[in-house]
Every structure is written in C-alpha cells, then in structure tokens.
Design brief:
It is built from 26 helices and 28 strands. The chain is of the alpha+beta class. The strands form eight sheets. Strands 2-1-20-21 form a four-stranded parallel β-sheet, with helices on one face. The longest helix has 22 residues, at 671-692.
C-alpha cells in the first residue's frame, strides 16, 4: 500500500506506539540537564479518571515532551495518594476493605493514565500506602517529634459527624467538611499537633521567591495572616488575674468600653460570679457544639455577662467582661478589648446589649454622633495625652507608652494555627509513638520503622472519636523501647496530607531503603521545576508541602527551602454551565471519547477548549473539528512524503513562521492558541502543497512540532517519512527571523475609514510607492473628491480622508 492510500487508523497507531514506548523508552539520557515536571498525584477513587484529571495531566505531559525535545532529561513520574478519607469513605460506602478498594482503584487509574499516552516513568511509581514509602513518612514525624514540633493536646476541634473525623481548620473552611460537605461540630479530643506556626514567618516571606500565580500566593499570605499590634494587660477588678489581649489598634485603647472572652478561655469559670454561672455555663456548652467557621459566619451577635469587671489601663474606666462566640480561643489570646466606636462587630454587640460607645478617632478632630462604627483614618480624640495625634502615629506612641508602664508590648500575630495532625480513623499511617506510664511518650526507634497498619475486618470509624486501632489489643499493647516496660501504641493515624507533603522528594530515589533520599539524587534532580494541579490545594497541600520542605532543609535532608519552583493551576472543565460531575449527570467519560476519536484527538481538544488556566466549557461537537485537523495533517504528510520537492523561499518562509508561532505560543503556555496555530499553518501548507508541493524539511518540522501535543500520530508520520528512531530523539526546530520575511505584503486601502481595495506590494516598497499605488487602485472613486489627509500605517493600510 502506498503512503498516499494509508488511512489515519488511530486505534492501530496508538496501540502500536504505546507498546513501542514501553519496550523502548524515549527519555533515558540522565546526562542531560534535568527538568522535573510533576502532576499532583490522584486519590484513586472507584470512579476513575475524569476530564479534570485529563486536562491537568495533558498540560504537564505537553510541557514534559517539549522539554525533552529541547534537550532535557525529564523527570515525569506518577503515583497514588491512597491513604486518608477519600479512599476510606469510598470503601465504607461500597462495603469493601480500604486495602482492596485502593488496590483495585489504583489498577483502574493506572490503565486509564496509560490511555493519556503521557510519558510517565512507571519505574518511579509510588503509593502512599506502601510500607516502604510510609516508613519515611513516619521517619519525618519522628524527627519533628524529636525537635519539639509535634506535641499532644486536648482541645475543641472541628468534628465531622458524617465522616466521623477531626478536620483541620483548612479542611473546614467555608463551614463544611472539605470531603463530604457536612457542617462540622466542636468536640474535645486528644490530638497530635504540628507546630507549623514556628515556620509562619518563613512561609510568608519566602512566597516572594516563588514563580507561582499571584492568586495562590495571596491565598497563602491571607491564611498565614500576619498582623502587627500590641499585647495589652487589663487588670481584673478585685482579683489578682489579668486579661491579656492582642490588638492591631492600640491607638483606640481609650475607646475600649467592655471586654469579651472566648467561651473556651481559661479564665471564664474563674471570673464568672455565682449569680451569672448558670447562664454562662449554658452559653459555653452551646458554643462548644459549633465550629469556628460557623461561629464567625453568624450574623446575630450573642453573649453573656460574666459578672466581673476589668479596668481600662489608660482611661481607668470600669469595663464589663462578657463571653461571646465571635471571639475564638485559638486566635490571638482568646480575649479582645472591645472598641464599639471603631469596630463593626463590637458596635453591633454594644448596640444590642446597651454597652457604652465612645469615639476616639475622628476624621477631622471633631466629635461626632456615631450611628455606625467609624473605621476610617483620622486623629485621636478622647484619648488624654494623645489627643490630636494621627491615628497611625498613635499606634506606635500608645504601644511605647504601655511598654514603659510595664502593661503592654509591641507584638506580631499570625492567623495561622498549628496543624491538627492526627485522625481517629483506620486508613492512615500509624503515628510512630509509644505511651509508657514511666517514660511518657517516646518515639518508635527508627530501626523499627515502619510501624505497619494491621489488617482488620472492622475499619469503620467509631462514635466515640477513638480510632478503630484502639480496639486491637494485640497491636496496641507493646514494649517501651526506653525502659522495656509495658506500654501502648498511639492509635490515632496521620491525615491524608502526610504522604503528599513530601512524596515529590521520593520519586527521584524511590527504591532507596537506606534513606528518605540520597544526597546524590537530591542534588541532581530536585527541586521540582514545574508543578501542575488545582488551585483548591492552595492552603492545604501546597502550604503543608512548603512546611515539610523547610523542616527537611533545617535537618539537612535537602539543600533547598521551597519544593516547587513554578506552579501552574489549570481551570476546571464545565458542561451545561456546571462543573462536570457524575452525580449531576453532566459528566463525559474519557474512555468513551478516546474509543471514538483516539487519545491524540482528546489531548488536542482539551487544550483547544480555552486558555489552560481558565475554566472552560465542554462542547460535544468541538472534538469533531480537532479530529478533522488530525486527518488533514495526516493527509498533508502521507500525500507529500517521498516527493523530491526542492525547498523554495515560499517553503522556507512558511516553515520558519510556523516554527516561530508555535514556539512563541508554547513558551507562553498559550496552549489553546498552539492548537489553533497548527490548524492555521496546516491550512497554509496544504495550499502551498497544491501549488508547489511540500519539501521534506517542512514536513519534518511540522511533525516534530506536533509531537508533544499528539505524540502517537507524530511518531507514525515520522516513521512514514523514513526515520528509524523516535521523533522525540530530535531537537525542537529552530526558526530564522530573516527567512520569515515576506516578499510581498497586502495593503488595505480605505476611504474615510471604509475598506475599498486590497493591493499587493513588494515588502520593501517605499511609502511614496505604496500611496501612489493605493491612489491608482481607487482612482475612479476619487474622481470629483478632494483628499484632505493621507493616513499611512506601514505594512498595513492607507486611508484617504476625502470630502
């Protein structure tokens, strides 16, 4: 069969080249400069890959293949984030053990990932549930414990009644469980915490070093929430206790007319008078059933007076001490001075309960009737010796005055809270600690790691908040490694973020039994150059991964402080105006699309739908156009290959313009315009082919350019052109700007801004010659008219303003 008679049989082609790549990998030269391109690895759920996965993975694979053609050794691995709530909830819902569910789902995912035809190096595959992997997850925790960054605490926490699990603040943002959407409750439980707050300043400052989307950096900065102010001590009337508050507005201290404590504040019980105790205790109990998010979202302010009073340290005024759920125990000091004249929440509270409202900041230095809180800038009034001082200067002056009096100090505060690290679930990494009555809490010796998760038949979460592991006496009861006495294992497990906070390090040394990563592999292949994934992980996975990396840097495991040099967040794929979802009935199965059109067509269409960073809408007919393009490209090559067509200036110009356009768009990651560029240039090359044929160099360039985007058809066409090596052994084509210049240009001729003619002129024609030719082209129309003005735009148009 001649090449002209060969049809584009994508099924046969894709099956052939997938097998070829498995037998003869295309990315093996470790001596090249490295480029580490990484996808956020998936949770292997039973539903398998969806179009959102495809979009992320195709984007990263295009970049990986592009870098390979540019001469890099590309680290492009894949694995599975298989511990944690997603896998366990799926197992419970389907009445299958998590171990089996994860194994089956991972196998399904891997098969579907291969359908993408991404150049993943499956020799680097890892799974967070593999004891050989989570040995090092546990090792990191042990190092944190030894450094004092892991500690145990009983505290009121976000509890999801549906998932029966503790949620970190980040997982309960928005007033609902991050996994199931149920509203969380408050529950007092023993927890293991990680002191991520020790790294707050570094996590904030180092954002400036990152080539990340500004939106993600802002989200992390806001979550860390650095603020400047002062800590101020308020004496409690008739008692030895004092209440310390943090405020960003010490300039408003004279306007503090009452105080509010969080219901969980340690002094609430002590400060509550007997006549107020019943009301206070009921309020504390009710507040304990609400999550922090729900409390902050409440519009109606509620509270109870404790019966005690404090003294304003500057004005000497007597202040009532209240409790209210709009104050949180884990932010600041859990107590606030209330300045209703200049804080909207305090104004609402004071108005509801009839508490004093005093103006201490004025926009013009005059006193005004306050119908609402004044939160603007101004000068201090009703503030004793500070009257007339600009409010901004007053912050510093009041803080210094308090420090001189010994009742306050300047302070920096962070909204970031320590990470609630333990979970009362079965399916997670066991926390490698042992509780001994004599020795306290001691880490499992590193030589005994990993502490493997025992197989159990009953893995469902308990109603009590204890992990199911607590019911396995044979596993719980152990020997203290310090004293040799009877002891018990920690029964809480790690959260789903534990493995994903460092997995990217392990890929490049996945079979190392002696260490988390060797120095040689670390220095050669890390950090990650390009990370692709959804923005929904901005203050969860991405923040935790940065924290882990900084810790590992501090203990000498890695020599860099940031894990991901560049980050790209792909947009979602919608259909019928909604995010694609099986439950909403608007999902599209990638398997069905590839069976009808092939992998290359789906890859190209996913890129063609719109800018990769934006949400896009799926159009069932859209892929038809992409499929037609692939057939056209196929015909262009197969109908012209082998013809002894000599390269002409026309061929060179078309070839170099194509290389320039595709390269420029690729460098900007404007992947949708890359695909449209292929369509435009293929149309032009087809026109040239009909007139003059197509030379071999131009065909070769087209195929190599197409290879990162549609690798199967590119490999097949490359072979048809007579090559015996992979197209990915080639280098990315280079363009010569001098050869892009056109011999002729089209000049638009207008009269009063309206199109009248198009004329062809030599590219080097003078302004005078072009205007003369333009006049000649519209000579008949100009009869009887006066040319008032000639407007000349070089290389574009001539416009005659006439009357």
């Amino acid at each position: 069969m001649s090449t002209q008679d060969r049809k584009y049989n994508f099924r046969q082609i894709e099956q052939k080249w997938r097998k070829n790549w498995e037998e003869r990998p295309i990315n093996t030269d470790h001596t090249r400069p490295k480029f580490y391109c990484l996808d956020m690895f998936p949770y292997p759920s039973g539903d398998g890959l969806h179009m959102g996965h495809w979009r992320s993975y195709v984007i990263s694979d295009v970049l990986a293949r592009y870098k390979l053609l540019q001469g890099h050794y590309v680290i492009h691995p894949m694995g599975f984030d298989a511990f944690g709530l997603p896998a366990e909830n799926f197992a419970i819902q389907n009445n299958v053990h998590p171990e089996k569910a994860v194994k089956d789902s991972s196998a399904k995912f891997k098969k579907q990932l291969m359908d993408i035809c991404a150049m993943y190096d499956w020799d680097l595959e890892l799974t967070t549930t593999d004891p050989a992997f989570y040995k090092w997850t546990q090792w990191i925790f042990v190092q944190m414990f030894k450094k004092g960054l892991a500690y145990e605490k009983e505290m009121p926490l976000n509890w999801c009644p549906a998932c029966k699990v503790v949620l970190a603040n980040e997982e309960a943002a928005g007033g609902e469980c991050e996994r199931c959407g149920a509203p969380p409750e408050k529950k007092n439980l023993r927890q293991w915490m990680l002191k991520i707050t020790e790294y707050a300043e570094r996590l904030l400052v180092d954002l400036d070093k990152l080539n990340w989307p500004d939106k993600v950096k802002k989200m992390q900065a806001d979550w860390i929430g650095k603020s400047y102010g002062a800590k101020i001590d308020f004496a409690v009337n008739g008692r030895d206790e004092k209440i310390t508050v943090f405020t960003t507005r010490p300039d408003t201290l004279y306007g503090a007319t009452f105080m509010v404590l969080a219901p969980e504040h340690a002094l609430v019980a002590t400060l509550t008078t007997d006549d107020r105790r019943a009301d206070v205790e009921k309020y504390v109990q009710d507040a304990g059933t609400m999550s922090n998010v729900d409390r902050m979202a409440k519009k109606d302010k509620t509270g109870v007076f404790t019966g005690s009073y404090a003294t304003n340290p500057l004005s000497g005024e007597k202040l009532e001490i209240w409790i209210s759920d709009y104050v949180l125990a884990d932010y600041g000091t859990g107590a606030i001075m209330c300045v209703p004249g200049h804080d909207e929440r305090d104004f609402e509270f004071a108005t509801k309960f009839g508490l004093p409202i005093l103006q201490v900041i004025s926009p013009d230095g005059e006193l005004h009737q306050l119908d609402e809180a004044y939160t603007g800038d101004g000068v201090m009034v009703n503030s004793g010796q500070f009257n007339g001082l600009p409010a901004e200067d007053g912050k510093e002056a009041v803080a210094n005055h308090l420090a001189n009096l010994g009742i306050g100090e300047k302070n920096t505060n962070y909204k970031l809270r320590d990470w609630v690290f333990s979970r009362q679930r079965y399916w997670g990494e066991p926390i490698p600690l042992i509780h001994c009555q004599k020795c306290g809490v001691v880490p499992v010796p590193e030589s005994d790691l990993p502490v493997t998760l025992p197989h159990v038949d009953s893995y469902q979460p308990t109603e009590t908040g204890e992990s199911p592991l607590a019911l396995i006496d044979a596993w719980v009861n152990t020997i203290c490694p310090t004293c040799g006495g009877a002891a018990k294992r920690e029964t809480n497990t790690m959260p789903q973020w534990a493995g994903s906070s460092w997995y990217f390090l392990r890929y490049v040394d996945v079979n190392n039994d002696a260490g988390l990563i060797s120095k040689e592999a670390m220095e050669k292949f890390l950090p990650v150059d390009y990370y692709v994934g959804g923005i929904e992980h901005a203050v969860l996975h991405l923040l935790y991964a940065r924290f882990y990396t900084k810790f590992l840097y501090d203990i000498g495991v890695v020599n860099f402080e940031e894990p991901f040099t560049q980050l790209f967040n792909q947009g979602m794929i919608n259909r019928f105006g909604m995010k694609m979802s099986k439950s909403k009935g608007n999902g599209v199965s990638p398997d069905e699309v590839t069976s009808k059109y092939g992998c290359d067509a789906l890859r190209l269409y996913i890129l063609f739908m719109g800018p990769p960073e934006l949400d896009v809408d799926w159009n069932d007919s859209g892929i038809e156009g992409v499929f037609r393009f692939l057939n056209k490209a196929w015909r262009l090559v197969t109908e012209n290959v082998g013809k002894a067509v000599k390269s002409t200036p026309t061929h060179e110009q078309a070839r170099h313009k194509m290389i320039h356009d595709i390269t420029a768009r690729m460098e900007n990651l404007s992947l949708n315009t890359v695909v449209s560029g292929f369509m435009e240039h293929t149309n032009k090359l087809s026109d040239i082919a009909r007139q003059d044929g197509i030379d071999a160099d131009t065909l070769r360039s087209l195929i190599v350019l197409l290879a990162p985007f549609a690798p199967n058809i590119a490999e097949e066409l490359w072979e048809i052109c007579g090559h015996t090596t992979s197209v990915f052994d080639e280098g990315w084509p280079q363009y010569d700007k001098a050869k892009m210049a056109e011999d002729t240009i089209t000049i638009v001729v207008q009269m009063n801004g309206k199109l009248r003619e198009n004329i062809q002129m030599a590219a080097d024609a003078s302004k005078e010659d072009i205007i003369a030719a333009a006049k000649a082209s519209v000579a008949t129309r100009l009869k009887g008219l006066i040319i008032v003005k000639e407007i000349f735009v070089p290389g574009k148009l001539v416009n005659f303003v006439v009357k």
